[in-house]
Task: structure prediction
Amino acid sequence: MKRIYILSLLAFTLAVVLSCAKQGYPSGGPKDEKPPVVLSTTPANGSLNFGEKQFSIAFDEYVNIKDAENNILVSPPMNTKPEYTTKGRSVVVKLKDTLMPNTTYLFQFKEGIVDFNEGNPLPSFEYVFSTGSSIDSMTLRGQVLDAFTLKPFSQVVTVMAYGESLLADTLGDSIVAKVQPMYATRTDKEGNFALNHLREGRYMIVALDDANKNLRYNEGEAIAFLDSLLNAEPMPAAPDTTRSAKDSIGAANDSTKTAPADSTHLSQPDTTLPASSSIAQPTKHTLLISLLKVEKQRIIKSEFSGKGHITIATQVPMSRNYTLRSLSADTATETFYHTLNAKGDTLSIWLLNRDCDSAHLVLKDTSGINDTLHLKMKQMRSHGKTGISKPTSTPMRGLVSANHPYFDTMWIAFDIPIASYKAPWGSNDSASLDSAVGVFLHKDSTRTRCGIHLVPDSTLGHGLSRKAFIGFAGKSGEKYSFHIPEKLFLDIHNVTNDSLNITTQFTKSENYGNLKLNLLLADSTLLADGGQLLLQLIDEKGNMLHQKIVHQAGPVTFEHLKAGKYSFRLIADRNGDGSWTPSNYWLHQQPEKVIYFDKILDLRENWDMEEKWNVKQ
Result:
């Protein structure tokens, strides 16, 4: 009997413990989605002559502190960070640093407090006090946008303010990298920010993707800045959101309680303007944030990628004025041809002597390269034999898809530069490249001939080519086969090509539409400093489809477009490099201006659409 009594007592005790540990709605009840509500603060929010070592914030329910390091900001920053703990239904903040005299301190809890059960965050809550006889009540507000998309930045951004007196120091522009700001805050999901409780005066504002949370600008962090100092403006009156004790008790007994309309501030009658004040709303400033990627130039790959073929890849693009020379005493490696790809980050080199298995090269470029390369061909094993056999033909590839745009050129590519061509039917035949390609029309099985034409590569020089095009104007909607015979071309190693067959269906002309834009430039500064405009045709997601360089107002036409939704983006290309350039803080250069057309155009097949864009900003 005694044993049964003890077991019953243990079961009862366990049930009580579990019921106490698990607070919230019973199983099957509605989920609590309401944030915790602030009931009171001790000392009161907005206290003057503050000399305490801690303060506490009481809530209507049990709460947790979530990632205080990243979610709680203190202005001015403290050398020794406060300690954040919970006690009952309160958050206790213990101050570990010595407070400065006559200073307003602002604690911003950016979703750093969540309820115990569901983790619902308290919207941004601010606690303010002054060690002097008054609370600073000025503000700077605005929004941080991505400088290219003009939408809220993808990350939460830290906005920092440096007072004019601090800027007078000899640090100059480097202050953002060496000194913590006087004030700091973080943006919300829409990029909005409010730097509250500032002293009167002028400030430099910087927005920073502060990845390491050190309140300093480090290389590799996106940044936004303004070209001039801003005057702080009076804070507008905050609504009274303090809950009375009676209201709190009632809310605690009501499982369907609702949070106040604005629970971000407690009533601060001593620190803000009275509710009846007719003060204007503060100016909303816009900061455009961007990331300037500064990568150190280096060679990331240099190797023989085939017999007589060397590939050199670099971290960042090289200039077109690079120099390349051989250090080899062997005359076999003295002659080579080389070309840089369109992006500028891959250099292809072909040795005239294909059997050469080593090279000693010096590569120099203004991008930061001055390297001596000692390269050796690696022995490769194929079918049990070491090395690579001498090729019997030079590789040739067709750059033609199964469905070829009827208006586009049909290109042929060569892996090895082509030096010349031969008559395809023997040295005594007068046939030329103008009729070298056989053409078969599938519709009626008719046969004809057309030409193929080499295109000299100016980067290779010496009249060498790596591309050719088939000179054929077919009918839209028809299916064709093309035969390019063997031994038509000679590469630099005196090897001829193999034959190539291509079959493709030409698209129909009625499957496309044309879009004409009449561009008007009300803002003449867009073409200032000798720059140019980049007019980009974009899809609904902002992806660039086509780009045209514009130097003046007038009509611009985009032809042969598939049916779909389109819009436009205009970039003021100040430096004329053909692409958008982000800001450079150290050179005081703002990001290149980007303007978006305010319409989405629905282009249908076989349509000619015309629009007007009067660019005003």
Q: What stands out?
A: The two ends are 90 Å apart (CA to CA).
